[in-house]
């Protein structure tokens, strides 16, 4: 544990300068191990500052911290625009001895005025710790205190950024929309991944769940709709094109799986000048985003433009209908001369219900993923498939919603959704639940299947049990139990088990030396995504199990950076950004935050959509595009809740690395 010498945290002053050195309470856990063999000297944040080394140049540390604040100021209000620049300049002048001690009084006034008068979260938070330092430890501000370089790593982020697995700089691309700079906004997203328009349609919006606007009026900024708007402007104007990256390195990488993880990995490697070949078991790119998400939510031309078209444009190659474990092995890939392999295959096998008479070979029984694959092949390729009579779907997630809505569009007479808990407990996106209700799906909540009713090898019904909620457990969560004697049969022609997916067991062979867990998911280093076999990396559903599209995008990007480091430097590195993200998450530094200033109330925009009566007749996209005016108004709802976090270390975190950086 690092020895705290002095500081202020959450308003409490800590001063051990006159006492013997000893371990103090860890206010921020993990700082002592932030960087291996590189001692942490100080930590500065909006909630305070902590000093662990008596030789820390406090003036220089705050000077670099405030320089980043000035760089990030949007300039729309005077207190933040002028205040951050003035504080930066005064600190720099005092650090090099060209300003007198009286400037500290000016700094204290500026810190208070910037904090109390700024309109956005950045201005309201960036000078708080400086004000605390000047109030309680002014004697540590020493003019011209040494000329040795101060190694500061300053990380800019926000609650929405940290909630996003891909760590997209949300306020920055919203600023682009607000300013009418849609290419700029799209560029912020595409710095992370290529699938901006796709993610702008189907992302589960973890960022919106963290949005501080909900504290003001209960509705988050429409972050996803703004991402889609910026991306669609590029698609509509045929500007979704990048300058082709030139192959700069002799190494070649094989990417297995053309889903979100594999496409993102390929995209980032190609941008780094490394040649990539992509292998996939399907006829086209997109993975589960293609076969598992119906066209009414994600049009396939949009997906194709952001995956296959863009990767080919960047110089990547595709080899379709090639399945790992069936047509080739990892050993075969290395034998072909690849220098590294990324495994990004998905979880394509449906989970069983575990009820009596269940048999996947039965006529009238499908898993959710198999059903959606048949729908996909029918809609996209015209392969024969029809749905008749009454359909029962078991599950409460987004896959279940895709199944019920697709069955309706395929011509089912009636569609029933079976879910063992309440509608409020459903893990599916709320908008998907509402859309299903509007389209006439019949919900049976607090109901669970106990057996399939089978006649002559065909499913003709499902036996159901009524469920009831039990008392709350220690965590405040209610479980459910069956109601005795509540068995009843719901007649049907097709039962779809949409309760989850698993990774196929025979994709990898034991002799290939790639460690897996008991669910057949690949075991990786969580930061670098390296597997137990040298040169093999993995990410997405084959590591996480069936999770979300944006989690797969994150894995693809991180794997690409690790593979690049491995190929060019001999080993994969954990970036300072990743270390800081882990630190923030471990200490939950965004939890319990509240708005400093109550913003003006602004209603959230609504996305136009096709009428329910008409849309169930087609697989055309349901959600429409907001107007430029609506996009601007929605973008102005963003409070720019930026926060700065700085770690001062004894040595530079990485040779040649800049002293500050921005998430995204």
Structure, described:
The chain is α/β, with parallel strands linked by helices and 664 residues long. It folds into four domains: 6-158 and 642-662, NADH-ubiquinone oxidoreductase 51kDa subunit, iron-sulphur binding domain (de novo design (two linked rop proteins), Up-down Bundle); 161-240 and 608-635, Alpha-helical ferredoxin (Fumarate Reductase Iron-sulfur Protein, Chain B, domain 2, Orthogonal Bundle), CATH 1.10.1060; 252-347 and 503-575, FAD/NAD(P)-binding domain (3-Layer(bba) Sandwich), CATH 3.50.50; 351-502, FAD/NAD(P)-binding domain, CATH 3.50.50.60. The chain is 35% helix and 17% strand. The strands form five sheets. It has a seven-stranded mixed β-sheet, with helices on both faces. A five-stranded parallel β-sheet has the order 8-7-6-9-21. Helix 19 (430-438) links the parallel strand 13 and strand 14 (442-445). Helix 12 (223-236) runs antiparallel to helix 24 (628-635). The longest helix has 21 residues, at 549-569. It is globular and about 95 Å long. The two termini are 31 Å apart. This is Formate dehydrogenase beta subunit. Residues 59-104 form the NADH-ubiquinone oxidoreductase 51kDa subunit iron-sulphur binding domain. GO terms for molecular function: 4 iron, 4 sulfur cluster binding; FMN binding; NADH dehydrogenase (ubiquinone) activity; oxidoreductase activity. InterPro entries: DPD_II (IPR028261), FAD/NAD-bd_sf (IPR036188), FAD/NAD-binding_dom (IPR023753), Helical_ferredxn (IPR009051), NADH-UbQ_OxRdtase_51kDa_CS (IPR001949), Nuop51_4Fe4S-bd (IPR019575), Nuop51_4Fe4S-bd_sf (IPR037207).
């Amino acid at each position: 544990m690092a020895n705290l010498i002095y500081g202020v945290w959450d308003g409490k002053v800590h001063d051990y300068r006159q006492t013997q050195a000893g371990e103090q309470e860890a206010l921020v856990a993990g700082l002592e191990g932030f960087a291996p063999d590189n001692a942490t000297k100080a930590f500065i944040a909006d909630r305070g500052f902590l000093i662990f080394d008596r030789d820390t140049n406090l003036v220089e540390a705050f000077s670099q911290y405030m320089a980043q604040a000035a760089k990030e100021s949007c300039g729309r209000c005077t207190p933040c625009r002028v205040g951050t620049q003035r504080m930066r300049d005064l600190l720099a002048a005092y650090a090099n001895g060209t300003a007198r001690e009286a400037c500290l009084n000016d700094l204290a006034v500026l810190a208070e005025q910037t904090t109390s008068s700024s309109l956005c979260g950045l201005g309201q938070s960036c000078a708080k710790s400086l004000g605390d330092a000047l109030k309680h430890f002014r004697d540590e501000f020493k003019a011209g205190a040494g000329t040795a370089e101060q190694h500061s790593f300053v990380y800019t982020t926000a609650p929405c950024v940290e909630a996003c697995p891909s760590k997209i700089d949300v306020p920055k691309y919203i600023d682009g929309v607000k300013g009418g700079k849609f290419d700029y906004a799209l560029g912020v997203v595409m710095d992370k991944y290529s699938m901006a328009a796709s993610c702008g349609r189907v992302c589960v919006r973890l960022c919106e769940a963290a949005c501080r606007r909900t504290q003001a009026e209960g509705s988050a900024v429409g972050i996803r709709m703004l991402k889609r708007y910026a991306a669609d402007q590029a698609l509509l104007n045929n500007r979704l094109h990048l300058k082709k990256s030139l192959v700069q390195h002799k190494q070649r990488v094989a990417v297995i799986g053309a889903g979100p993880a594999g496409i993102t990995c390929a995209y980032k490697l190609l941008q780094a000048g490394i040649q990539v070949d992509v292998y996939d078991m399907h006829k086209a790119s997109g993975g589960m985003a293609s076969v598992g998400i119906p066209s009414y939510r994600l049009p396939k031309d949009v997906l194709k433009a952001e995956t296959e078209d863009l990767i080919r444009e960047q110089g990547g190659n595709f080899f379709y209908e090639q399945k790992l474990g069936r047509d080739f092995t990892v050993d075969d890939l290395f034998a072909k001369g690849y220098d590294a392999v990324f495994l990004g295959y998905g979880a394509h096998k449906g989970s069983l219900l575990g009820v009596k008479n269940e048999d996947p070979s039965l006529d009238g029984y499908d898993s959710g993923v198999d059903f959606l694959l048949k729908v996909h092949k029918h809609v996209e390729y015209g392969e024969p498939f029809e749905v008749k009579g009454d359909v029962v779907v078991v599950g409460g997630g987004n896959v279940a919603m895709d199944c019920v809505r697709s069955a309706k569009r395929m011509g089912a007479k009636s569609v029933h959704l079976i879910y063992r808990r309440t509608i409020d407990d459903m893990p599916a996106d709320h908008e998907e639940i509402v859309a299903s209700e509007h389209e006439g799906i019949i919900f049976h909540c607090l109901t669970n299947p106990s057996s399939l009713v089978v006649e002559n090898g065909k499913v003709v019904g499902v036996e159901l049990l009524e469920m009831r909620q039990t008392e709350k457990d220690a965590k405040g969560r209610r479980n459910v139990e069956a109601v005795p004697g509540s068995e009843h049969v719901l007649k049907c022609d097709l039962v779809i088990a949409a309760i989850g997916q698993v990774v196929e067991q025979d994709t990898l062979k034991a002799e290939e030396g790639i460690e897996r867990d008991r669910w057949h998911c690949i075991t990786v280093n969580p930061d670098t995504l390296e597997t137990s076999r040298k040169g093999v990396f993995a990410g997405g559903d084959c590591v996480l199990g069936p999770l979300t599209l944006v989690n797969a995008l994150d894995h693809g990007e991180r794997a690409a950076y690790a593979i690049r480091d491995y190929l060019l430097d001999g080993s994969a590195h954990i970036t300072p950004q990743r270390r800081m993200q882990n630190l923030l998450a471990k200490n939950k530094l965004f939890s319990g935050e509240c708005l400093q200033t109550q913003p003006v109330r602004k209603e959230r925009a609504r996305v136009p959509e096709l009428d329910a009566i008409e849309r169930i007749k087609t697989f055309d996209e349901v959600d429409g595009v907001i107007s430029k005016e609506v996009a601007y108004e929605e973008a102005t709802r963003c409070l720019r809740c930026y926060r700065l976090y700085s770690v001062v270390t004894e040595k530079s975190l990485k040779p040649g690395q800049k002293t500050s950086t921005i998430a995204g």
